[in-house]
Every structure is written in structure tokens, then in C-alpha cells.
Predict the 3D structure of the following.
Amino acid sequence: MKLLLSSRWLLFAMLASLHITLWLGVDNTWARALLLTHFGLFLLWQPLWRGERELRSGGIVFIACISAMVMLWLNWWILAFWLAGLFALVGGRVFAFRARWLRVLYLTVMAYLLAVLLLWVVPYLFAAQGAHVNITLVHLDNIIEVTRGLMSAVLPLFLAGILLMPAESDEAESVHAVDFFYSLLLFMLITLLVLGSLAFMTLARVDYLSALLRTVLIMALVLLALGWLWNPRFGFTGLQPLFSRYLLNIGTPFESWLRQLAETAQHEQGSAAFLAQAVVDLAALPWLSGVTWRVDKDAGSLGKTSPYPIEIKVQDLHLTLFSKQTIAPSMLLHIHLLTELLGYFYQAKRREQHLREVTRLQTVYETGARLTHDLKNMLQSLLALTSLAQRREEEVFPLLRRQLPMLVQRIELTLSKLKIPQQENEPLTLPLAAWWENLCQRHQHEAIVWACEGAVTDEEIPAAMLDCVADNLIDNAINKRRHQPGILIHVTLRAQPFYLAVCDGGSAIPAPLARQLLQTIVPSENGLGIGLYQAARWAQQLDYRMVLRENAPGTVCFELSKN
């Protein structure tokens, strides 16, 4: 707030010194001293570059030249062009503000400058040139007499209003933002207004007010015509596409760097490689002498340092750009925008890399979870075979000779998955008939009712996935029968279309648990849920679908079918 008030007082002092200078006239001895004071206050207030920076030799020479011109060649033409420049500079700031009272403040300053220029400076200017351009001076003398009262009593009220308006903060006020195109347009319009009035007074031999009104009317008609032609009408494409084409096709080094940034983002997968290449492209810009960056524990630099560093921070990415010369505020905003894009690209690359790592870990986790259940099922099968071998019955040995090779094959498959988890994307296939026979023999010691609907074909099926699903469902049903003795277990297979169902006659699964089953990992007392979730995900990846078909007391059925 103190900064805003000091800026307000600085603006008031600058305009007050200018007002006194204009009221005294160019021939007064004190006018030059007051105009130098006004110029010094302007240098402190101006929104083009920061006033707290130290002046260098180039700036000192520029200020000395302006001061010498004011002291030696002060005239109404210089004052007219200076007021036009001030009007354009203030107008270029109005469009950058969002705070209401700041906009009102600068609009008031614009109104004051325009009134002083058209009602005081221009009449004196035309009166001084009257003898050369052959225009009458009587009406100009009358205008000057009328406006003298305005300069003495009315226009100072505009300056007093600057101090009375409420102080409001705005981002544009702090960054010294000026819209160059608006300022240039306003300067050209106000210059055209002054010179157009002079042309009418010279050629049409009319008084100043008539010439001013004619110029304003013609300018208004031209602007109205341009506004009407801006948008497409009656088959005409309009001026907007033509202007936009030249405005967007700027062909600047910034545009080339943005194109290189997008190409680098497509080619480089790692965040570190992307950042290194992007900084190399950034350092190649002609106005930069060097770039340094720091992110986490990584840091680097390119080029040379300079007395004009630009510090930029985008999240945890710190950039320091060293320019070859002082950067204007408008260009500084542009640089911040481009480096923000670089930072967002870099953060996106980091998130992409983190996502790849998470995907790898998830693949290892899912493979480990599946293999855990495979190992559990194989250990259960091995336990059953060991129990059969202890009976020392002759009919047991043929069964062992058939089951042990299949068990060895499953162990080898599990070991290969532990070495390379990605091998699960290439499932081991077996004929459906052979797989069904192995499943029946593996669980033949259990009291299970096996049923087959139709003929079993030799169609190739993913044996590892079907083993995981069938063994989990059968083991869960057997575990339920241990708590609920006497229930029946049915396993039904159909080849065309493929269909595998495992049903038991026990109690129904609780509704809250049944809704989450096969969708996520669910906690339970006997471990039900983890194996089924992994089996369901595996089946889904291989274009199969596993669902809980029925869930009622006496009939609980899980079904695996092909999509």
C-alpha cells in the first residue's frame, strides 16, 4: 500500500510540474527548469523499465541528450509530441488493469492529457505556425483566452482527483506492464488528430474547432468502417483472418524454440535427457549468453554469465537466464511464459517416467501375487500326491507317474515367470481335452462331481490362466466344505462356447463381500478374495470374463467364459 501511495504521489508531482510548465509557456525562463524536473519525475514513474535499477553509460547519455534538447530547442512541437507520447503510454496501461479504481485513475489522466493537448498546446502550436501556413489567428487567440481559465481552475481539479481516488493494487501495476500495440495505436491516432486539424485549417480555411470536429468525424467513420469490415459479411472474409495470419506467423526465435521443445518432448523419454536437450535449445537463442539450471540434486550450466540474470522457478526447477542486454518488462513476461511451458513439459516427463516405474512395479506385484497362488496350489497338489504315496498301494504309482511330470512342468513355468515376469504375456497353451483330463486327475482324490456338456475339443487354451482360476475356485470350495461338512462341489465344462463353472452347495457369500469380490482385494478370515481378484484380472487380460453367476444359500456358482 505504501508503494501504491508513493507511485500515486509521483504521478501527481510529474503531472503538476508539467501543468505549470505548460501554463508558463515555452518562452518563460522557469519553463525549462520545470520541464527538466518533470522529465526526472517521469524517469522515476515510467512503466517501461524498473526505476530502481542502476543507470549505465547508455542511459546517462540518453538522458543527457533529452535534457540538452529541452534546454536548447524547447518549443510547442516538442511539447505536443511529448504529450502525445504520454497519452499513448498511459493508455497502453489502462487495458492491462482489472482493478476498477486504477482504470478510473488512468482514464482521468488520459482525459487530462488530451484536454491539455487539444485545448492548450495545439492552439499555441498553430498560432506559432500561423504566419508560415497562412491561417487566421483571431479565433486561436480567442480559444487561448477561454482555455486559460480552464488551465487555471478546471484542469487542476483532474490532478487533485488523482490523490483523492482510493488506492487499489493490481498485478499489472507491480510488473510495469505496457501494451505496446495499444500505445502505438493511440500515439498514431492522437498525432493524426493534430495533423489532420492543421491540414483542414490550411486547406479548407476553417477555424480550429471546425477543423478538429471534421478530423474527429472522419476518424470515427474510418474506425467504424474498419470495425464493420473486421468480421465476415456478405461473402467477404473480413480483415481479422488476414491480420491474424500475419500476427501468428511471426517466425521469431521463440517460435522455433517452441517447435524444438515439442519435438524434444516427443523424442526424449527420460526427464533428465529432455531437460538437457531443452536447455541446449534455449541457450541457442540469440539474445542469451548462458543458462544455468538446478533441479533436485542435478545441476548444470551452458554458455557464459552476464550482468543481466533472470531468475525463474517452476515448481522444483530453477532456471537462471543470462541475457546480453537489459530485458524489457514485456519481453520478460514472454520469457516467463516460455519457461513455464518448459517447466510443465519437464514435470510431465517426470510424471511419465514415474508412471512407467509404477507400471513395472505393478507388473512385478501382480506376477508375484499370481505366482504365490500358483505355488500354493502346487504345494497342495504335492501334499495330496505325497499323501497318496504313503499308502503303498499299487494303483497309486501309475497316478504318481502321470501327475509328477505335469507338476514338474508347472514348477518350470513358475520359475521362468520369476526370472522374467513379462513372459506371462505369452501364456502356455494346451489342448482343452488334455487340460480337462489333467484337472480331473489332479483333484480326483477330492469328492467333486465332474460334468462335461458336449464333446471336449482339442482347441488351444491358456492353460496357466485356467489352472489358476480352477484351482482357486476349487480350493475355496474345499475350504468351505471343511467348515460346512456334507456340501457338494460341482465342476462343469462346456467347449462351445467355452464355459467353466465351479459351484458348491454351501451358504451364500455376504452381500457386501459379494459386491466387491472379483473387483478388488477383499479381507476375509480364510483369505478369500486375493486369489480370486488376481485370477479375474488375469482372465480379463486374456479376453475372458469371470463372474459370480449365482449367490444363494445352497447354490454358489462362479463362472468363467470367453468374451
Observations:
- The chain has three domains: 2-244, 249-354, 429-563.
- Residues 429-563 form a domain with the Heat Shock Protein 90 fold (CATH 3.30.565.10).
- Residues 94 and 103 are 6 Å apart (CA to CA).
